[in-house]
Fold this sequence. Notes:
Oligomer: single chain
Number of helices: 2
Distance between the termini: 117 Å
Radius of gyration: 39 Å
Amino acid sequence: MRKKVVKKVKISKFEKVLYALAIILVLAAPVSIVFTKSALSEINFKVEKMKKEVQAQEKTNESLAMKINELASLDNIKKVIKSEGLSYNNDSIKNIE
């Protein structure tokens, strides 16, 4: 019977470095994907929060604009004039354009 000769395959330094980089990439890819997904989720949460704040501010602005229009109405001006004891004379009003 013959003995089997086992040849050892020597791996060069370049191949070792190449294998190490491949292993690092295989392990780092899922971690980086999870990290970016979590960062994206956090940013989306902040965007939704800001949208709600903007909508609330728009409602406030709209209600204030309505209040301004109400206070600037002719009927309200006449009430203030009468309460202050003044008279409303349309002839003395001049429009400037």
